[in-house]
Amino acid sequence: MLDPKLLRSEPEKVAAALARRGFELDLKGLAELERRRKSLQTRVQELQNRRNTKSKAIGRAKAAGEDIQPLLDEVAALGDELKAEEEALRVVQEELRQFQLHLPNLPHETVPDGKDEEDNREERRWGEIPEFDFEPMDHVDLGEALGGLDFQAAARLTGSRFVVMHGQIARLHRALAQFMLDLHTREHGYRESYVPYIVNDDSLYGTGQLPKFHEDLFRLEGERPWYLIPTAEVPLTNLLRDQILPADALPFKVVAHTPCFRSEAGAYGKDTRGMIRQHQFDKVELVQAVRPEESFEALEALTGHAEKVLQLLELPYRVVTLCSGDLGFSATKTYDLEVWLPGQGRYREISSCSNFVDFQARRMKARWRNPDTGKPELLHTINGSGLAVGRTLVAVMENYQQGDGSIRVPEVLRPWMGGQEQIVPEG
RNA sequence: GGAGAGGUGGCAGAGCGGUUGAAUGCACCGGUCUUGAAAACCGGCAGGGGUUAACGCCCCUCCAGGGUUCGAAUCCCUGCCUCUCCGCCA
Which domain holds residue A417? Predict the structure, then answer.
């Protein structure tokens, strides 16, 4: 959520910033809502004040043994009017809240202007794009030939956009996740967490998936508003919901390996082949909460932590800054890491690292006690994939493939593979 | 699944339907004392919102949502959560 004070005091400025991402702020509607809110709120508070004063007077009179009937007559009419005005105020405030919940974050000044991914700015490239003296296969052909990937079985078990992994490929997938977790906990200072894969609606409001992106989520049957997590960002960041952290608990850095569930509504026909876009995939997620003045520094560091995974795996990649129009709802700035996929002959997103500044923290009341002011203040939250495990598996398979259809195991992964050096077809 | 107890400020823990947004203790901050520290003593210390140039004034919040009442932390209903015992279970 945006700072309501900023929204009130400088709506034109907010509108201009939101326009950069193609969002049109309804200034007239906002002004009208504000106008109604203000007059109703003033009126309600005035009535409440009168009621409180009279009620206290009644209490005093009663204690003094005086006749309270005249006083009771005075307040008689107050109740109904107050009730009506309170209801009107509630309606307006709910409208205002909905209005605010649908406003995306403001793009940071360092974010390039643009409409879509075409306008993203490439920051740097790392690694050598591999040359093959044979026609490289994509992970689907490789995996099926190796007996390690079975999309047909998954379609039978569930439906499209799922995969079954077997044998060495399944192990490689597990090794990747373990390797990432160990790297981030041992080298980068994150605390490992195990979290629920089902969350309530408050959590999804907190990180910004709700109310706007309901269709992207899997909701469970039943009375309760429970959803499968689309990313561990949701449970991890919501660890701080309604909390006030002491200053010495900062920076807060957690990592978790979880499955992620996405409905991919609206992605019909997109990446239908292979493991790139699945309803269920594993991800190692990095989350930080820091002092406001440190968040952009933290974003750089966290992006570096994700990059480190690719570097150790020796996978070529590039870093792009998302342009204003390509930015996610809650983010003020995002770096995407894109890994080179020989099977597609192009870079594909494998990690997305964002600074949300106080946008998520305001929604979830995630605060810290600032020793300088003694007051609770909003934290800044940052997160990023470190990395998407399924897509990393794809990248390893495609980049490490050999002419005979086998796959070399990246050196850094071998400790998690029992020392195994290559993956060959299984009998 | 059955039976019971409970959810109050950063934490612990009081609270008769009425000057209680809340005793007390701890923690924290400032001060006195001390060479310094500790102890002791004094003072401060919930969150959110409205209004104001500011001092201030006002409103809301004692798990959440309804209800009773002139007035609710306190009474009633529903939900959620926690704890204890029994049963079941990985």
Answer: 117-423
In the numeric block, the tokens 């409180």 are attached to: A52
First to last CA, chain A: 55
What is the ipTM metric for this complex? Answer: 0.86
Q: Could you say which DSSP state residue A408 is in?
A: E
Say yes or no: Cβ of A345 under 7 A from any atom of strand B. Answer: no
Does the active-site annotation cover A349?
yes
Task: Write the DSSP assignment of A185-240 as a string of letters.
Answer: HHTS-PEE----SEEEHHHHHHHT-TTTTGGGSPBPSSSS-EEE-SSTHHHHHGGG
User: What residues have CB less than 8 Å from A230, skipping those under 6 apart?
Assistant: A209, A216, A217, A260, A261, A262
Extract the tokens encoding A358: 């106080």
Q: Tell which phi-psi region holds residue A327, choosing left (phi > 0), alpha (psi between -120 and 50) or beta.
A: beta
Is A111 inside any structural domain?
Answer: no
Is residue A215 annotated as a catalytic residue, yes or no? no
Q: Which residue, A101, A131, A151, sits at the end of a domain?
A: A101
Could you report the average pLDDT of every consecutive run of 10 residues in chain A (427 residues)? 89 94 94 91 90 88 82 81 87 90 95 96 97 96 96 96 96 98 97 93 92 92 90 95 87 96 88 94 97 95 98 98 96 98 96 96 89 86 96 98 96 97 87
Could you tell me the two tokens for A76? 């008689």
Whether A75 maps to a domain, the answer reads yes
Protein-to-nucleotide distance from the CA of A73 to the C1' of B57, whole angstroms: 27
